[in-house]
């Protein structure tokens, strides 16, 4: 099928299974450098999750529903699996934008086509005569209406470049930069967990003060669930901790997830906390915590080394830094083992922020910051009698106090890029 500008069709009429196919794009424009992207948009036509912008810097969506490919004979393209897309993604828009000088009027020929394997199912062609001063184009849209996926040949231009497209779709662009910026922490939280918006704003201030706004890192939270922590769980303090730490994970982590562990005699990794599941997270994922030892699958006596080892196994080969917040209420007794593990981990891309809450006898945890014979200073510790003793802003400041110092050392020593 040869599509004209504005023409629409049902995907199922063009692709037998109506779900998996490729989009190939070819532009013949000597002298122009063109970037191609696929924007995954919500029901409002907005980029509510920047992970669903597929382009040179981000070649695949988290769900695997859209990926960068180059079909034979094309300049570039995208693999599409509509069945993998989350319900929040209502449309995919294929775009082209000039990087540098020039306008789309210089295009000698171009097309975007739908491919079922090697079979061409539909094509929309265009030339520079269709445009004037435009520097960016929306070429093709694949959208869901009444539960049915359809396509539309757009051929719509913008005078701005890639930055103009990002802004048009509700995304953000760094000041003075034409490259897409990460969706702001506050915007993500407002869209998906508005009850945490106040926390997100305070976290953003601390991140800016510590010059961490452009840092990417994995984020982990390790929770003591020994018998002496019972009151902290019953008062809801542990759930409050998850609420407060999650905005940091959403900011730092490329997948927006907070990795969580809970430990006593044994350690258990829980499902990652996210903006969509944070409400009632502890009661749902660890309903036995803070209740009776007989119902606990991890026992009742704290064994920090077993938890530290679990975290090391997960992050030792990570390609980006890992920032781990480790909660304890004291009673630390395996001092030599902890000391040895932290020394060993000082060559790994992991920073440990130990936090004591409502306890005593923190043992070696209080001395780790000055521990000798480490490759770099890879940890910090502070204690609170009660989580409510300090403001949320002060908590973020304390949590982030030494992380940037470790980052600097770790980069200098080649531990992280």
TrEMBL record:
Residues 218-399 form the VWFA domain. Keywords: Tellurium resistance. PROSITE patterns: VWFA. Pfam families: TerD (PF02342), vWA-TerF-like (PF10138). InterPro entries: Stress/Tellurium_Resist, TerD, vWA_TerF_C, VWF_A, vWFA_dom_sf. The keyword Metal-binding does not apply. The keyword Magnesium does not apply. It comes from the Bacteria. This is Stress response protein, TerZ-and CABP1. The lineage of its organism: Bacteria, Pseudomonadati, Pseudomonadota, Gammaproteobacteria, Methylococcales.
């Amino acid at each position: 099928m040869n599509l004209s500008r504005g023409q629409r069709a049902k995907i199922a009429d063009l692709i037998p299974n109506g779900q998996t196919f490729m989009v190939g794009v070819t532009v013949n424009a000597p002298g122009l450098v063109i970037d191609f992207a696929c924007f995954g948009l919500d029901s409002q036509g907005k980029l509510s999750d920047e992970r669903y912008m597929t382009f040179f810097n981000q070649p695949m969506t988290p769900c695997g529903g859209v990926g960068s490919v180059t079909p034979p004979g094309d300049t570039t393209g995208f693999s599409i699996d509509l069945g993998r897309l989350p319900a929040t993604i209502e449309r995919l828009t294929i775009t082209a934008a000039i990087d540098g000088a020039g306008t789309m009027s210089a295009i000698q020929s171009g097309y975007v086509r739908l491919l079922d394997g090697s079979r061409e199912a539909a094509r929309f062609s265009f030339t520079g005569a269709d445009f004037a001063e435009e520097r960016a184009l929306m070429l093709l849209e694949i959208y869901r209406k009444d539960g049915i996926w359809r396509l539309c040949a757009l051929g719509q231009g913008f005078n701005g470049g890639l930055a103009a497209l990002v802004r048009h779709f509700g995304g953000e662009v760094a000041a003075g930069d034409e490259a897409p910026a990460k969706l702001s922490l506050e915007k993500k939280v407002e869209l998906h967990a508005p009850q945490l918006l106040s926390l997100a704003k305070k976290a953003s201030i601390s991140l800016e003060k510590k010059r961490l706004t452009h840092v990417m890192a994995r984020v982990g939270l390790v929770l003591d669930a020994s018998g002496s922590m019972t009151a902290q769980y019953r008062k809801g303090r542990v759930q409050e901790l998850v609420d407060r730490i999650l905005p940091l994970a959403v900011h730092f982590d490329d997948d927006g997830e907070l990795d969580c562990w809970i430990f006593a005699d044994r350690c258990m990794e829980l499902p990652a906390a996210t903006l969509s599941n944070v409400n009632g997270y502890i009661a749902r994922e660890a309903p036995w915590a803070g209740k009776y030892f007989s119902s606990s699958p991890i026992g009742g006596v704290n064994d920090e080394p077993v938890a530290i080892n679990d975290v090391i196994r997960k992050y030792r080969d990570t390609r980006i830094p890992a920032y781990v917040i480790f909660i304890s209420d004291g009673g630390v007794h395996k001092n030599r083992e902890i000391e040895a593990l932290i020394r060993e981990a000082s060559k790994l891309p992991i920073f440990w922020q130990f936090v004591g809450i409502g306890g005593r006898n923190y043992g070696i945890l209080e001395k780790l910051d000055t521990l000798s014979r480490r490759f770099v200073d890879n940890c910090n510790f502070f204690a609170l009698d009660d989580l409510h003793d300090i403001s949320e802003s002060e908590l973020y400041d304390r949590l982030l106090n030494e992380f940037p110092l470790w980052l600097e050392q770790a980069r200098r020593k080649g531990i992280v890029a």
